[in-house]
Give the backbone structure.
Amino acid sequence: MARRLQRLGALLLSSSWLAAGEVSKDVVEHMKCQACQMAIAEAVLHAAELKARDEDTLSDLVDGLCTVKKPEGKWTAKYDIVQKGKDGPLTMVKQEGIGICKSECLALQRGCAAVLKNKEETIVSMLLSGKKAEDIEKKVCKKICSKKLPPLKDFNDEPYRPRDPKEVEAEERVEKMRAETGQNFKMWSREEIASMSQADIELEAAKDALGAQRREAKLAKEAEERELGIRPAREL
């Protein structure tokens, strides 16, 4: 059981996406236009990869554009914010892989969320009609991108720190499992597992086994109901 939970811990890992860091309101304001443009580009890219392009699926996609915990929002951890010259503008520079989400990543998420607020239905509608990224961008980002920026005070450029690709891959598997089963999974760090007693490990392994049995039973029941022509309650 101990080995099993350790494997589970490696899968449901967790060096957390978010690390503590103060977020400058000025930086958020300066990044809103670029965040909007990138979010729209990601929306179009991910929409093109969807098997089902219905309104509900696209609404879920748009809801995840500004959070690093969703595939469509991971772009916020792929860029470093740099300043061109001492008093120059801020710009996004793409990095290799996905980085630890600190203040610059949080600034992109907050800027993104602010500019897309109350525009979600517009984006979904334009995605449904097959509009190109530049057309959606003109509709959604034009106002914020034409806004005069406030003075930028004391921008502190934080170093970009990449995450372990294996950890990122494991978290993506967890998110996929969560989406497929509707089950929330406990994400363990190596440090948490190392601090557990044998009794703790056996207890968590038992919980995991029980959860798996319940998920299998639920899926089997839903499959049986479909064969009988009964729609699951959540679809009614």
User: Anything to note?
Assistant: DSSP finds nine helices and two strands in the chain. Confidence is low (pLDDT under 50) at residues 1-20. The CA atoms of residues 160 and 230 lie 52 Å apart. Residues 198-227 form the longest helix (30 residues).
